[in-house]
Amino acid sequence: MNIYVGNLSYEVSDQDLQTAFSAFGQVTSARVIIDHETNRARGFGFVEMANKTEAEAAMVALNGKDMKGRTITANEARPKAPMGSQTNKRW
Fold first, then answer.
1. Is residue 51 part of a domain?
2. In what order do the strands lie in the sheet containing 41-49?
3. DSSP string covering 14-78, please?
4. Does residue 26 sit within a domain?
5. What digits encode the pLDDT tens for the residues 27-67?
6. How many domains are contained in the chain?
7. Do the domain assignments include residue 55?
8. CA distance 75 to 29
9. What CATH code is carried by the domain that includes residue 6?
């Protein structure tokens, strides 16, 4: 299951996400999204967990918790929108 983790402090690393979520089960991958222009964290990331039950337990336990001074959000990630589609077109 893919988990979106938002409102991350800029100091949070991939390893920090790995450590926090692995307390609830096997983490397949954990990554903080980086802005390629500034090379800084963008304030969100994704954690992939192999077991849905463990992932749901992690989301319940960690959503609203403090991580390095920020209250994080953790919920099931939505599928990525297809390239070229925009949800808020103004024209």
1. yes
2. 27-34, 41-49, 2-6, 73-76
3. HHHHHHHHHTTS-EEEEEEEE-TTT-SEEEEEEEEES-HHHHHHHHHHHTT-EETTEE-EEEEPP
4. yes
5. 999 999 999 999 999 999 999 999 999 999 999 999 999 99
6. 1
7. yes
8. 16
9. 3.30.70.330
36 within a domain of the structure (yes/no): yes
Place of tokens 């800029």: 10
Query: Does the pLDDT value for residue 84 go beyond 80?
Result: no
Tokens (6 digits) for 39: 């090379």
pLDDT of residue 89 exceeding 70: no
- Non-local (6+) Cβ contacts of 91 within 8 A are none
Q: By the 8 A CB rule, do 14 and 89 touch?
A: no
Which residues constitute the domain of residue 31? Answer: 2-76
